């Protein structure tokens, strides 16, 4: 099915369409200096293709959140969410084919890059059955795929660049069509820019950027000067989804607008200089102190829940305290409560501080007040429970837990699930089981997790000729049986 998106008109007033199906297969690169109309172009493309294809927008300045009211895009404010929540949102939007705007406004540069890397990697790692076609629009792409290191940590830069490279180089088979916009081609990593087959080049002034734009458009170097003369909102278009020869296009009107527009000149005040001076220096010594800095927009969910959990745990029991119970009875209640929490299918994707609130309520209902575990102890026991170890780990688990302590906290459950199977000589847990314990739907993340643990010499993985995997814990001498197919 051919779907044409009307971008605008050429010099003769004829419509310039973009073949949406071809765009999904060949990707798009937009370049133009600040004020050349890149965001306007992206907005036109998004508006005209809304309802035809799923849309995912990486928005560093919060310009595209206004699409929500008119076209139903779901806005995710990255400032309000944790890594696990961001990756969960990405997995769910691929499954349910929701159009989303990831608003990165308010984050520092390294925070924006880190969040974009989480989000794009989760899109890329979605299960094969969720590989539906989607436009992934990245504004200011030079921020997420820079040519140099800049002032951000190297690991953040590499993660962001790797996610952008996957989007542009390998995303097509997964249904992800990258649409990236940049102010300067010279600042955008070449291996990211080179994967686009469609180009819309707007006004630019630096010789190096004009030369690269001319090369991409198949123009001679002496013709590059016309790129400098392009009016705002005018672009040179080339590519299989646009035109076989460079054509000038004036981008059409849009129905929505960004929350912040270009500055406009307004008349200056007409007060005499003496009066203005009096206004500036009036009662200077008695002036009120400056207002305090604005508070953050909203605390991250996990931080908020941790504070709530701490406040509840610090409360003293009431005068009518419940009778004390024997340690064995307390332990039985804890084990039963953990079984009930783990049995809830939604608990795998809920943060430990949130589940701790549920744990406290269940304990009170069972007659335990105050709750027998604090947040840190609960998080540890929860990881054990997700591995099928509901009772307090005994001496036989001391060595395994000591090894697990060398890993990040969120990997404890996955490590212990494999350790439990290895201790019992049971078949190696499947990737789906490991994903559920880790709290993800991405099998790619599970494979990277196993590789991470193996790099630390805690796992030794073997795959037999039938393709069945087994894992050995060399420090403990435990080994799983080959995985069941």
UniProtKB/TrEMBL annotation:
Origin superkingdom: Bacteria
Alphabetic keyword roster: ATP-binding, Nucleotide-binding
InterPro entries, per the entry: ATPase_Atu1862_pred (IPR014588), HerA-like (IPR008571), HerA_central (IPR002789)
Gene Ontology terms for molecular function: ATP binding
Start and end residues of each Helicase HerA central domain: 10-74
Database matches in Pfam families: DUF87 (PF01935)
Nucleotide-binding found in the keyword field: yes
Protein name as it appears in the record: ATP-binding protein
Organism name: Stakelama flava
């Amino acid at each position: 099915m051919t779907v044409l998106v009307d971008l605008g008109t050429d010099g003769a007033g004829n419509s310039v369409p973009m073949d949406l199906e071809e765009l999904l297969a060949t990707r798009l690169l937009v370049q133009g200096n600040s004020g050349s109309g890149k965001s306007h172009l992206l907005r036109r493309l998004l508006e005209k293709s809304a309802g035809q294809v799923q849309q995912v927008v990486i928005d560093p300045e919060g310009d595209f959140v206004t699409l929500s009211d008119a076209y139903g895009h779901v806005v995710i404010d990255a400032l309000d969410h944790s890594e696990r929540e961001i990756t969960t949102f990405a997995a769910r939007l691929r499954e349910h084919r929701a159009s989303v705007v990831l608003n990165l406004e308010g984050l520092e540069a390294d925070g924006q890059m880190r969040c974009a890397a989480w989000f794009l990697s989760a899109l890329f790692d979605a299960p094969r059955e969720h590989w539906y076609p989607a436009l992934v629009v990245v504004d200011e792409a030079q921020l997420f795929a820079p040519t140099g290191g800049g002032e951000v940590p190297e690991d953040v830069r590499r993660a962001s660049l790797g996610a952008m490279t996957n989007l542009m180089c390998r995303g097509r088979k997964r249904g992800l069509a990258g649409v990236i916009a940049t102010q300067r081609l010279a600042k955008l990593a070449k291996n990211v820019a080179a994967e686009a087959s469609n180009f819309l080049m707007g006004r630019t002034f630096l010789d190096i950027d004009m030369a690269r734009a001319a090369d991409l458009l198949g123009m001679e170097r002496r013709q590059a000067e016309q790129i400098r003369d392009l009016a705002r909102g005018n672009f040179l278009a080339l590519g299989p989804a646009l035109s076989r020869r460079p054509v000038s296009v004036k981008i059409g009107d849009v129905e929505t607008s960004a929350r912040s527009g270009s500055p406009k000149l307004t008349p200056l005040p007409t007060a005499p200089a003496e009066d203005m001076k009096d206004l500036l220096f009036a009662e200077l010594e008695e002036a009120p102190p400056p207002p305090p800095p604005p508070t953050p927009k909203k605390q991250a969910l996990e931080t908020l829940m941790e504070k709530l959990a701490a406040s509840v745990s610090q409360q003293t029991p009431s005068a009518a305290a419940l009778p004390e119970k024997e340690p064995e009875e307390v332990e039985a209640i804890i084990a039963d409560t953990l079984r009930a929490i783990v049995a809830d299918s939604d608990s795998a994707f809920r943060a430990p501080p949130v589940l701790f609130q549920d744990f406290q309520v269940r304990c009170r209902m069972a007659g335990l007040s105050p709750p027998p575990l604090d947040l840190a102890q609960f998080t540890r026991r929860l990881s054990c429970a997700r591995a099928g170890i509901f009772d307090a780990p005994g001496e036989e688990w001391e060595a395994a837990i000591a090894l697990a302590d060398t890993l990040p906290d969120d990997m404890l459950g996955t490590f212990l699930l494999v350790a439990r199977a290895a201790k019992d000589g049971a078949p190696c847990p499947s990737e789906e089981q490991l994903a559920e314990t880790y709290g993800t739907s991405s099998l790619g993340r599970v494979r990277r997790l196993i590789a991470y643990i193996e790099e630390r010499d805690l796992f030794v993985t073997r795959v037999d000729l039938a393709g069945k995997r087994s894992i050995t814990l060399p420090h403990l001498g435990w080994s799983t049986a080959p995985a069941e197919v």
